[in-house]
């Protein structure tokens, strides 16, 4: 398949929403490593085969995501009498096949029962009829509307997450205070902050990687669409071709190009950098004051949960002020899963309010259930305040005919690699035409 699968959440999936269930637990089977793929032997009669990414983390650090995921899996195993067998994979660097490449192949060939999926893969597999409808699960009744919207394809709920992922700007507040800078609200504010940092010896004010720069684009592209009065009508116009995705996306791409041209983002480094691994060290050592990451990165000690400076997480600059960008991975079950019935029951337990309460409290994340609320850490309060006000944009919306997160990520990478903004907009037009002709 095309390299269009090389992005995002390759790290988001790597560290959150169950990401680390991926270390052999439960069944106690033998683990074999072959071409980055870990398979756990199925020794019990009732087995649910779960394919997920494997986490890459510091070996001595506490992994709360793994703990939370393991607890919920253990709940399902005890309640149902099944054994969840983990099959895992992680890409070692940007030249390896991505997790998405692997999971797409496995799901198309019915190799596992349950999969942890990125949003674009959810859409692709659903359109191919490779995922079961999960709307009949008891847990589905409690989902937030935003979760249903993001994971419903052709009227079928095809994936359910264990958390809703909110992206924001991670800010070194001490460095902003040092130069008497207010936290940016608009794109113009953000450019001014970067100018001051650059003029005061900060070589690269914005630490970036090859997956998450699209968050800037989404905040500017869809701030009005999702926070205005005509969301459904605007999406319908995009789906009919009456409106163009490129018209929405253009300001965000022009903004990124300006950041690159002014030296505020190192495009060459970003193009080959894995998420957090590329920019994390510079942020933690206070060489750069701004990075972008997801909610859970402020909680986990393996990432930005413990810094030597005051950390704040705010929304991305937009015409409507600081704007959270929301996305979500999700668990899907193969349409031809060998153990489909047990997989459905297992997922129902994993995404029950009881399990989600434990998962959310342990990881301190946003729950997909409308019945589960968890207090966030102080660093996340600015971002959480906006979300509680229902101010955000969706970067994943299965109701849009053109898949958003993956396509935008790859087109941003074209920009990093030297494509012009006009060339990038032409690619959006091509994708829209392709979708309309299906």
What would you note in describing this structure?
This protein is α/β, with parallel strands linked by helices. Helix content is 40%, strand content 13%. The protein is built from 18 helices and 14 strands. The chain has helices at residues 12-15, 64-80, 99-108, 119-127, 145-151, 173-178, 187-199, 214-221, 223-227, 231-240, 245-261, 267-272, 280-284, 340-350, 353-363, 381-388, 405-416, 421-436; strands at 31-34, 37-40, 47-53, 83-89, 114-117, 152-153, 156-157, 165-172, 206-207, 290-294, 311-314, 325-327, 330-333, 393-394. Strand 6 and strand 7 form a beta hairpin. The longest helix is centred in the first third of the chain and has 17 residues, at 64-80. The relative contact order is 0.19.
What is the count of DSSP helices, taking H or I runs of 4+ residues?
18
Assembly of the depicted chains: single chain
Which parts are unreliable, with pLDDT below 50 for 5 consecutive residues or more? 1-36, 38-44, 55-62
- Per DSSP E runs of 2 or more residues, the count of β-strands stands at 14
Radius of gyration: 21 Å
What structural class results from the helix and strand content?
alpha/beta
Residues in β-strands, percent: 5-15%
Distance between the termini: 19 Å
Largest sheet properties:
6 strands, mixed
Coarse shape:
globular
Residue-averaged pLDDT, rounded?
86
Strand order of the largest sheet: 1-2-4-3-5-13
Helix content: 25-40%
């Amino acid at each position: 398949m095309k390299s269009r699968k090389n992005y995002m959440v390759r790290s988001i999936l790597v560290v959150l929403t169950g990401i680390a269930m991926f270390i052999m637990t439960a069944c106690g089977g033998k683990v074999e490593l072959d071409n980055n793929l870990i398979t756990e032997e199925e020794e019990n009669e009732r087995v649910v085969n779960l394919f997920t990414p494997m986490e890459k983390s510091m070996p001595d650090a506490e992994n709360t995501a793994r703990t939370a995921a393991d607890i919920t899996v253990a709940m399902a195993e005890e309640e149902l009498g099944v054994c969840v067998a983990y099959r895992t994979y992680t890409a070692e660097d940007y030249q390896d096949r991505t997790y998405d490449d692997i999971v797409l192949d496995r799901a198309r060939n019915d190799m596992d029962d349950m999969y942890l999926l990125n949003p674009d893969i959810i859409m692709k597999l659903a359109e191919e009829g490779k995922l079961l409808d999960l709307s009949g699960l008891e847990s589905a009744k409690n989902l937030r509307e935003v979760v249903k919207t993001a994971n419903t394809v052709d009227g079928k709920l095809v994936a359910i997450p264990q958390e809703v992922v909110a992206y924001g700007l991670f800010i070194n507040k001490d460095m902003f205070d040092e130069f008497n800078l207010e936290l940016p609200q608009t794109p113009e504010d953000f450019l001014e902050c970067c100018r001051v940092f650059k003029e005061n010896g900060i070589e690269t004010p914005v630490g970036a990687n090859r997956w998450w720069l699209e968050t800037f684009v989404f905040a500017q592209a869809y701030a009005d669409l999702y926070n205005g009065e005509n969301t459904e009508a605007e999406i319908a116009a995009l789906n009919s071709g009456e409106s163009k995705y490129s018209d929405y996306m253009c300001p965000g791409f022009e903004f990124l190009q300006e950041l690159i041209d002014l030296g505020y983002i190192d495009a060459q480094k970003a193009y080959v950098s894995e998420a957090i691994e590329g920019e994390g060290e510079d942020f933690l050592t206070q060489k750069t004051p701004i990075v972008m990451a997801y909610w859970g990165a402020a909680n986990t000690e393996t990432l930005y949960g413990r810094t030597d400076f005051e950390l704040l997480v705010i929304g991305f600059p937009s015409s409507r002020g600081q704007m959270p960008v929301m996305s979500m991975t999700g668990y899907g079950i193969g349409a031809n899963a060998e153990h489909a019935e047990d997989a459905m029951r297992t997922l129902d337990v994993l995404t029950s309010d009881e399990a989600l309460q434990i998962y959310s409290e342990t990881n301190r994340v946003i729950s997909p259930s409308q019945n589960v609320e968890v207090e966030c850490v102080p660093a996340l309060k600015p971002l959480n305040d906006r979300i509680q006000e229902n101010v955000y944009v969706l970067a994943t919306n299965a109701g849009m005919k053109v898949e958003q997160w993956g396509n935008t990520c790859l087109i941003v990478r074209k920009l990093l690699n030297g494509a012009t903004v006009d060339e990038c907009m032409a690619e959006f037009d091509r994708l829209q035409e392709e979708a309309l002709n299906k």
